[in-house]
Amino acid sequence: MTAGWTEGCRRIGGGAHPVIALHGWFGSGEAWAPLWPHLDRDAFTYAFPDYRGYGRRRGESGEFTLAEAAADVLALADARGWDRFSLVGHSMGGIVMQRVLADAPDRVRAMVGVSPVPASGVPFDAETRAVFDGAADDPALRRAIVDMTTGKRLTGVWLDAVVAHSLENSDREAFAAYLRAWADTDLHEEIEGSPVPVLAVAGEHDPALGADALRPTFGAWYPSAEIEVLGNAGHYPADEVPVALATSIERHLAGRT
């Protein structure tokens, strides 16, 4: 593990409630930036790490699996002295946080999934899977995925910025491997019935991981799960509606012990 994982990741706030926020497949720790001005820095301390092969950890070797990512999250918590903490996970980060829960259930205070991949992964038809597989080498396919998952309704300037961030902040090998990790893994039997408080946030314009995908997964497997739909958002609420997302996250986390 590099020092960058424990020391170089973005940290915001100084509150008593630690929160580790895990980014999505096209993101990085810095992709959470639109959310930062709206976070309660007195109540919470947030860490925004990168996975191996992403952001500050580009060029770092690894297996690029959920198990490895979860182990790194726990190592980060250990390095910070956080015995218990909450987790926020966007998209791919949603299944990474559930791997952390499965591996260390007594350490997780609460979880918020933002357009989160369920613990069962994401089954694709052959045509769609070919698009996702091809995105490792074709920026146009990355752009098409972002456009589709936000309802084909947002400016091309923003679509291009998301793609540029993805290309600049992920190694090709890691990007390709993490697709298999989040799409093809089914760990739902390991977390089913967990009493951890869970909020699953869906964008109303997300055709991939909207409320219809979250109710029979998060809603079925977590007895205390809440499903919330954010208006005027697709798959990237941190960009599309950052104030509303920050409010939802911290409303759910507040008071959790």
From TrEMBL:
<dbReference type="InterPro" id="IPR000073">
    <property type="entry name" value="AB_hydrolase_1"/>
</dbReference>
<keyword id="KW-0378">Hydrolase</keyword>
<dbReference type="InterPro" id="IPR050266">
    <property type="entry name" value="AB_hydrolase_sf"/>
</dbReference>
<dbReference type="Pfam" id="PF00561">
    <property type="entry name" value="Abhydrolase_1"/>
</dbReference>
<protein>
    <submittedName>
        <fullName>Alpha/beta fold hydrolase</fullName>
    </submittedName>
</protein>
<dbReference type="InterPro" id="IPR029058">
    <property type="entry name" value="AB_hydrolase_fold"/>
</dbReference>
<feature type="domain" description="AB hydrolase-1">
    <location>
        <begin position="18"/>
        <end position="125"/>
    </location>
</feature>
<dbReference type="GO" id="GO:0016787">
    <property type="term" value="F:hydrolase activity"/>
</dbReference>
